[in-house]
Write a structure and sequence with these properties.
The protein contains seven helices and six strands. By secondary structure, the chain is α/β, with parallel strands linked by helices. The two termini are about 25 Å apart.
Length: about 180
């Protein structure tokens, strides 16, 4: 299995929808190119909520309905969705910031095929990227994890940088090249 690329929550609602940002829109072409040129497995996560989102703990803290299963905003960006289909990439729907199913899948895969490195990109750096990076670090502590900083976007540029520093403090490599 060697190096695995994990694309976190590159969904319409986080790019140009309910919680979209100019930074998320700006990284999309680079994320698409990274997936297109990646030599190895690519996995995707998809933030997934239900119609009762506003009644959840997250919904009470972030009262913006987003990524409701089956809606346009829940879908991966069209360019990435097409690549995911062509490459037959696993997509992990997750109701929380971090995906335990993703960590379990990679842990099981690592038992039969060595995972040499996990590489993450996507949104939001300060919520779901950091949550998944730390969850994967806990599940696979000896597998190096690298975050492509230029292919991630946070809620704000300041929160993006804070999350990168926090991940770096937890022995996650931050790749700031392009």
């Amino acid at each position: 299995m060697n190096r695995v690329l994990i694309v976190i929550d590159m969904q319409r609602d986080f790019i140009d929808g309910a919680l979209g940002t100019p930074e998320a829109q700006a990284i999309l072409p680079a994320v698409v190119e990274t997936v297109r040129s990646w030599d190895g497995p690519v996995l995707f996560t998809r933030d997934t909520h239900t119609e009762d989102y506003l009644n959840t703990q997250e919904g009470r803290h972030l009262p913006v309905v987003h990524c409701v299963r089956g809606t346009e905003g829940w879908q991966l960006a069209p360019e990435l969705d097409g690549l995911a289909r062509v490459r037959r990439c696993p997509v992990f729907d997750k109701p929380t910031f971090g995906s335990t199913a993703l960590a379990d899948w990679l842990t099981e895969a690592h038992r039969t095929q060595t995972v040499d490195e996990l590489v993450l990109c996507g949104v939001c750096t300060d919520i779901c990227v950091i949550s998944n990076a730390l969850g994967l670090k806990a599940a696979l502590p000896e597998v190096p994890i690298r975050v492509l900083a230029g292919r991630c976007a946070g809620v704000t540029p300041e929160r993006h940088e804070n999350a990168l520093r926090a991940m770096e403090a937890c022995q996650i490599e931050i790749d700031r090249r392009g």
